[in-house]
Design a protein that fits this description.
heterodimer, A: 281 residues, mainly alpha, MetI-like fold, 2 domains, 0% strand, globular, B: 302 residues, 12 helices
Chain lengths: 281, 302
């Protein structure tokens, strides 16, 4: 078969229809960003109402930092996110490795189902389990466990994707040179999948600190938690303080994403390791 | 391979897959089973559950029952809420598809160096807190917002009484679409990006108009992406309670809200569990259908 000339492809891509595509795309991007822009803008607005622009102020941020309950909630959420992302990263990395390396039937289903199903189902079943079987008082521990359960899948997906892009011969080479399974893992596999592990950890952290639904079901009545605190503020009395905390959270997430992207860019890719050029093309 | 390394291999396999397996059996499989079990029990007098074993005083409820399911089917109200949830999920999926397709197509046909950035711009708002994204629409649709004033000013010129945008089915739909749109864009883009553009050239050479090229070539090829995206939107919408809870009025109750109320409101655990099981069945059938459609769409091509 003769490949059509290059300009043919270009002409299809540069079709008149493209103008409509651009218009539609710009509208969708606007739809995605305008709401968030408004939240940020009103966090600096000198008015109790989120209605019209009055003037610039930082008072909502000041109010936020003197709101002890909010600070406690932020601290609690941070503890939960760190613990959950740590355990999810360890277990998720193992799961990703296991699913990639061995032909497993049950583990993939258990790992990926919590990612795909509606969060409310996980929340409800864990609530029943904690209260009926473990007799656990709902609180930080139950939230950490619940978050770990759904974060494992995300870490496993990222780690597995990285392993799939790698040249298997690296591991064979290590084994041929007499490395034990543990040595192969510590000296070859782990350094290579490190960017995926870190990306998984950052993703778990963001998912955990943002999660509302599962937290809502497993929170109990004790300690204040950030998303629950935000929910209460939204439901009961909306003040621009919500905008301020929202803006700070957006900055945090943005920072995490940039960090993850930086690490990904700096890390050696599995394919570019000496003697393997699989990913070069 | 020597027997030694075979043994080491098996040990490594258990060591690597054991801990996550154990964790998920305890904190995912067991809770799911408990939920099934709970749906067949009697509710306790003060919320929670009645005991399984017969209690001392006679006549009080104990043991297992299908009462919760009977209750579900005895009142049309619950089936109605399920149907409404399906309708909302279908509408959200359709709107997301219409909005996401042109964007995904544009990204897939853009120059390679811009693609990642354009995808990142779709995912970025999605990385902000879920509640914040819903809350943003409380501001935009609120009674004092510029949009509300604008809409009502237009309505007023036609002599129509003013409307409230917030706490309405409209607000729920907007929120649902906003929260789930990236789930549609990403699988569509992943699919469209793989298309062999020379097919379009061939179609053009054979005299196909741009519409024909889309409808007869691009669209059928993109069906697996369409079904994947649809499942990724439809399923979470089906179980969503936060969007109707925050943006909807008192009448805009979906399955998720119903379930939430059974656990945190009326404390009827068996009924809440039964509803959750019904939702699970709904989700499984939707996922199964989507997989089947996607497979038959790919089958056609092969």
């Amino acid at each position: 078969m003769v490949r059509p000339l290059r300009h043919g492809t270009e002409s299809v891509a540069m079709d008149r229809g493209n103008m409509w595509l651009w218009l539609a795309a710009v509208l969708v991007y606007a739809f995605l960003y305008i709401p968030l822009f408004i939240v940020v803008a009103y966090s600096f607005n000198d008015s109790r109402l989120n209605a019209e622009w009055v003037g610039f102020t930082l008072s909502w941020y000041k109010a936020l930092f003197t709101n002890t309950e909010m600070l406690t909630a932020a601290r609690n959420s941070l503890i939960i996110a760190l613990s959950a992302s740590f355990s999810a990263t360890v277990l998720g990395t193992m799961a990703g490795l296991a699913i990639h390396r061995y032909k497993l039937k049950v583990l993939p289903i258990l790992v990926f189902t919590p990612v795909a199903m509606p969060e409310i189902l996980l929340g409800v079943s864990l609530l029943l389990f904690f209260l009926q079987v473990l007799n656990l008082t709902l609180g930080m521990v139950s939230i950490i466990i619940a978050h770990t359960t759904f974060c494992i899948g995300f870490v496993a997906i990222i780690v597995r994707a990285r392993l799939q892009g790698m040249d298997e011969s690296i591991f064979e080479a290590a084994r041929d040179l007499g490395a034990s399974s543990w040595q192969t893992f510590r000296l070859v596999t782990l350094p290579l999948i490190m960017p995926a592990v870190v990306a998984g950890a950052l993703m778990s952290f963001t998912l955990s600190i943002d999660d509302f639904v599962i937290t809502f079901f497993t929170k109990g009545v004790g300690e204040p938690i950030l998303p629950i605190q935000i929910y209460t503020m939204i439901k009961v009395a909306v003040t621009p303080e919500v905008n301020a905390i929202s803006t700070l959270l957006m900055l945090l997430t943005l920072g995490m994403i940039i960090l993850a992207a930086r690490l990904e860019a700096r890390a050696p890719s599995g394919g570019s390791v000496p003697s393997s050029g699989k990913e070069a093309g | 391979m020597t027997r030694e390394s075979g043994k080491e291999n098996r040990a490594a396999r258990i060591l690597v897959s054991g801990p996550p397996l154990l964790f998920l059996v305890v904190f995912f499989v067991a809770p799911s089973l408990i939920m099934v079990l709970t749906s067949f029990r009697f509710p306790g007098e003060f919320g929670g559950l009645a005991p399984i074993a017969a209690p001392a005083e006679k006549g009080s409820e104990h043991g297992f029952t299908a009462e919760a399911y009977q209750f579900f089917f005895s009142d049309f109200l619950y089936a109605q809420i399920f149907l409404k949830s399906f309708a909302v999920a279908a509408a959200t999926t359709l709107i997301c598809l219409v909005m996401a397709y042109p964007l995904a197509l544009l990204i897939a046909r853009s120059k390679k160096q811009f693609r990642n950035l354009m995808v990142l711009l779709v995912v970025l708002p999605f990385a902000s807190n879920f509640l914040i994204r819903i809350y943003a629409w409380m501001i935009i649709l609120g009674p004092e917002s510029a949009l509300s004033h604008f809409v009502n000013a237009i309505l007023a010129t036609f002599g129509v009484t003013p409307v409230t945008l917030l706490f309405s089915p409209f607000a729920v739909m907007v929120g649902m679409v906003y929260v789930h749109l990236p789930f549609m864009v990403l699988p569509l883009y992943t699919n469209l990006e793989k298309h062999d553009l020379s097919l379009l050239d061939a179609a053009q050479d054979l005299g196909a108009t741009s519409w024909q090229r889309f409808w007869r070539v691009t669209w059928p090829l993109s069906l697996p992406g369409v079904f994947a995206g649809s499942a990724l939107v439809f399923i979470p919408v089906l179980g969503m309670f936060a969007v109707p809870d925050i943006l909807g009025g008192t009448g805009d109750i979906l399955i998720g809200n119903l379930i939430k109320d059974q656990f945190l409101g009326t404390r009827d655990w068996p009924f809440g569990s039964a509803l959750s099981i019904m939702l699970t069945l709904a989700v499984l059938s939707v996922a199964g259908l989507a997989t089947w459609f996607a497979r038959s769409a790919t089958g056609q091509r092969a």
